[in-house]
């Protein structure tokens, strides 16, 4: 092999870079880490199903915003007919009292930084 | 094409350095504004 | 709303079909939103506000109005005039009504402090210039802002002849004494202004300044109501008393009226 | 035809994944086994190809890259386009890898005014390539948020910059758009320009369609067919810590995305996509053009017995002098004679 030294060093660097997630995560020892959510104690039912909320809560909030701000309609009628006031601070955070142990858990886990909290107030303090 | 820009007299490099310094100042000012808002200037 | 929902469904269908998939989309692709107004909300054809200059002249009243408004709306209190944010504030009569004074204007008016706020114009120039439609006029006449859409271009500030709009030159949150959790704060780089307490109307409450003025100065210091109903209190007030608007010559048709 | 074939191939892959997951329920096949096979094929194939390249001897320092070669001291040479030092090579490689210099130099031959041949610069391909490669890099790094725990700071930083416009929720990344646009351009270019279409093969179209499929499924998954992202990260973390476990309830579209990516990985080492590594190993780029200064001996040359003129003269000097032939080096005077004189 010609220039064996250089080729092997290059390959080693490449493999090291490609396997970065593996050794980085294993070294941090958090590979088994899962978000642990603190669920509301006195409420078992969110405004919509758990699966829907998991995937679509950001769109729901976005639609809530449009409805409340632009159409002046502030009452959400859920799939099951229950009605909720559309408010992040007042409705969502009333049950999910701890933003850090609910919202932030998953958001941090998948690296999402929503800018909701730039303005919307967490009633329990930031 | 590109190497034309990498060669020049001392005066040329002083001029480039000066321009880069102005660009740098602009970038820093922009970043400050990003952080602190437009209050930085007005 | 329905329109965007439909577009959304269309987009996703085209997207999926574009992949050549005949398999139906298994999970839900969003749901159409069903919304209602809050029970007991106040609605109107055309909201209007009548301010009695004489009754709202004392510092107590004005202070109460400004405080009430700024407190519940998390308006920051910034000392520096250049960075000031205000929804309702006071100006002298001469400043507020420059085209309605002359050198012989009565003394009681000339330097009288007048409470001024967004006029919720019929033809709001701020709405016309807003490039993102962050500022818009609701059917009931309230000129509203959707803070999420504001990009901070400040065209509206330039367009508004009443100076009713403030820009958040810096992060306002550190300048808010007690953050009121029921209302969002703003972030740096957006414009804000009076929303005629749209959030209170939705709950069936009168605007905060009206409530404060009438509490401190007695009834009818400020009259708020639906101009679309001939028998409403504002309609009656406008019929029976002499009122003026700010800068009428500009043709924006303000809906905040002043009893001189 | 080649394009259609490639499109059909990619659609077949999509169909395979949909059928496998939706109808067959082969979650562990598409979620665990295929990804592992793909990564093994990717790394193994890549190393195999690189070692193959490394074993091929490079016969020549190719002296005609571009620019003036370093020769005599008073002739100006191109230090970076035609470098003769290690540093020059480093600069040339950096320009090539980071800025696609060769592509930038692209010219277009046109017949103008009836019969005149003109050569002009054309930067479109270069721009498309830059846009595509850099957005791909950003998207690749962005995806580390699903592969690392905790997420390194630069991934968060990159996401913030990329989502700077704050359009929509979740924010639409600028690079998604650029990536899609650049891919579209690169594809249209092949389809629209007759000369380019003529030389385009299945293995030119296939990666384009494959990447378009990956981008489409990715954008759909982020913005239109949302699914349990936390579950997806649990799956990937399980995979890379070698404790694979399928998470329930992930949308089938994710498996399509994953399968297309796996195909790309497995296909990579055996395709033209190997220019990722090839660019580092191309002798016309990574060798200093110093053949005037250093003697490079062709590695496969048979050993030639060299007998230089100097050696020849050494052997026959005395005889040459005796015969009256001129010699370069005069024979040393004999010490005995010198003493006598």
| Largest β sheet strand count, sense and barrel closure of chain C | 4 strands, mixed
* Helix and strand composition category of chain C: alpha+beta
Count of spatially separate domains of chain C: 2
Whole-number radius of gyration of chain C? 21 Å
What's the CATH superfamily of the largest domain in chain D, by name? Transmembrane di-heme cytochromes, Chain C
Please provide a written account of the structure.
- Chain A has 126 residues and is mainly α.
- Chain A has helices at residues 4-18, 20-28, 50-70, 88-95, 103-109, and strands spanning 75-77, 83-85.
- The mean pLDDT of chain A is 89.
- Chain B has 42 residues and is mainly alpha-helical.
- Chain B is 64% helix and 0% strand.
- Chain B is built from one helix and no strands.
- Chain B has one helix at 10-36.
- The termini of chain B are far apart.
- In chain C, 28% of the residues lie in helices and 15% in strands.
- In chain C, the strands form four sheets. Chain C has a four-stranded mixed beta sheet. A two-stranded antiparallel sheet of chain C has the order 3-4.
- In chain C, β5 (135-137) and β6 form a beta hairpin.
- Classes of the chains: A mainly alpha (126), B mainly alpha (42), C alpha+beta (260), D mainly alpha (341).
- Chains in contact: A-C, A-D, B-C, B-D, C-D.
- The A-D interface holds A 1-4, 7, 10-11, 14-15, 18, 20-22, 24-26, 28, 30-35, 51, 54-56, 58-59, 61-62, 106, 108-115 and D 42-43, 46-47, 50-51, 54-58, 144-152, 155-156, 159-160, 166, 168-170, 226-230, 233-234, 237, 240-241, 243, 249, 277, 280-281, 299.
- β1 of chain A pairs antiparallel with β1 (34-36) of chain C, so a sheet runs across the interface.
């Amino acid at each position: 092999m010609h220039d064996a030294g250089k080729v092997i060093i290059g390959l080693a660097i490449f493999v090291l870079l490609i396997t970065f997630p593996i050794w980085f995560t294993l070294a941090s020892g958090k590979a088994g880490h899962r978000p642990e959510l603190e669920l509301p104690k006195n409420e078992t039912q969110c405004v919509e199903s758990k699966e829907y909320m998991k995937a679509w809560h950001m769109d729901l909030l976005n639609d809530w915003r449009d409805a409340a701000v632009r159409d002046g309609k502030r009452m959400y009628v859920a799939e099951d007919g229950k009605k909720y006031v559309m408010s992040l601070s007042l409705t969502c955070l009333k049950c999910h009292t701890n933003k850090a142990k609910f919202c932030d858990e998953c958001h941090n886990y998948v690296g999402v930084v929503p800018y909701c909290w730039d303005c919307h107030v967490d009633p329990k303090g930031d | 094409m590109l190497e034309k820009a990498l060669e020049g007299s001392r005066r040329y490099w002083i001029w480039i350095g000066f321009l880069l310094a102005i660009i740098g100042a602009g970038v820093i000012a922009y970043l400050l504004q990003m952080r602190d808002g437009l209050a930085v200037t007005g | 709303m329905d329109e965007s929902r439909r577009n959304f469904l269309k987009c996703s269908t085209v997207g999926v079909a574009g992949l050549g998939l005949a398999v139906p989309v298994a999970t839900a692709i969003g749901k159409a939103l069903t919304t209602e107004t809050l029970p007991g909300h106040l609605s109107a054809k055309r909201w209007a506000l009548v301010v009695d200059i004489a009754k709202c002249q004392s510092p107590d009243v004005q202070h109460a109005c400004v405080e009430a408004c700024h407190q519940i709306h998390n308006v920051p209190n910034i000392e520096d005039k250049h960075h000031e944010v205000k929804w309702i504030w006071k100006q002298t009569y001469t400043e507020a009504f420059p085209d309605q004074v002359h050198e012989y204007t009565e003394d009681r008016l000339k330097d009288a402090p007048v409470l001024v706020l967004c006029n919720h114009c019929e033809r709001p120039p701020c709405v016309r210039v807003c490039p993102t439609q962050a500022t818009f006029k609701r059917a009931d006449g309230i000129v509203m802002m959707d803070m999420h859409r504001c990009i901070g271009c400040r065209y509206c500030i330039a367009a508004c002849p009443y100076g009713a709009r403030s820009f958040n030159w810096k992060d306002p949150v550190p300048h808010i004494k007690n953050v009121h959790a029921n209302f969002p704060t703003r972030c740096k780089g957006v414009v804000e202004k009076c929303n005629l307490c749209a959030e209170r109307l939705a709950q069936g409450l009168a605007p905060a300044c009206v409530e404060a003025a009438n509490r401190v100065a007695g009834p009818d210091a400020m009259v708020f109501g639906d101009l679309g109903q001939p028998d409403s209190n504002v309609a009656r007030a406008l019929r029976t008393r002499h009122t003026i608007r700010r800068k009428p010559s500009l043709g924006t048709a303000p809906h905040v009226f002043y009893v001189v | 035809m080649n394009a259609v074939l490639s499109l059909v191939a990619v659609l077949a892959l999509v169909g395979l994944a949909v059928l496998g997951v939706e109808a067959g329920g082969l979650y562990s096949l598409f979620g665990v086994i295929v990804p592992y096979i793909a990564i093994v094929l990717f790394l193994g194939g890549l190393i195999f190809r690189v070692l193959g390249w490394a074993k091929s001897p490079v016969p020549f320092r190719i002296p005609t890259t571009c620019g003036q070669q370093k020769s005599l001291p008073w002739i100006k040479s191109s230090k970076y386009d035609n470098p003769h030092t290690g540093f020059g090579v480093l600069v040339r490689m950096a320009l090539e890898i980071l800025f696609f210099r060769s592509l930038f130099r692209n010219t277009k031959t046109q017949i103008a005014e009836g019969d005149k041949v003109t050569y002009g610069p054309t930067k479109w391909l270069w721009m498309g390539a830059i846009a595509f490669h850099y957005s791909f890099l950003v998207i690749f790094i962005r995806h580390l948020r699903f592969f690392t725990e905790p997420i390194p700071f630069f991934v968060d930083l990159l996401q913030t910059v990329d989502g700077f416009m704050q359009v929509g929720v979740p924010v639409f990344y600028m690079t998604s758009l650029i990536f899609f646009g650049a891919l579209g351009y690169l594809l249209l270019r092949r389809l629209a320009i007759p000369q380019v279409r003529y030389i385009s093969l299945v293995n030119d179209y296939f990666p384009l369609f494959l990447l378009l499929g990956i981008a489409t499924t990715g954008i759909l998954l982020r913005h239109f067919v949302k699914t349990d992202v936390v579950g997806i990260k649990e799956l990937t973390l399980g995979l890379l810590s070698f404790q694979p476990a399928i998470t329930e309830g992930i949308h089938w579209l994710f498996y399509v995305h994953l399968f297309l990516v796996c195909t790309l990985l497995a296909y990579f080492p055996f395709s033209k996509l190997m220019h990722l590594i090839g660019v580092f190993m191309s002798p016309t780029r990574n060798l200093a053009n110093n053949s005037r200064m250093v003697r490079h001996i062709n590695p496969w040359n048979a050993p030639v017995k060299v007998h230089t003129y100097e050696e020849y003269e050494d052997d026959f000097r005395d005889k040459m002098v005796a015969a009256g032939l001129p010699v370069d080096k005069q024979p040393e005077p004999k010490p005995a004679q010198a003493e006598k004189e």
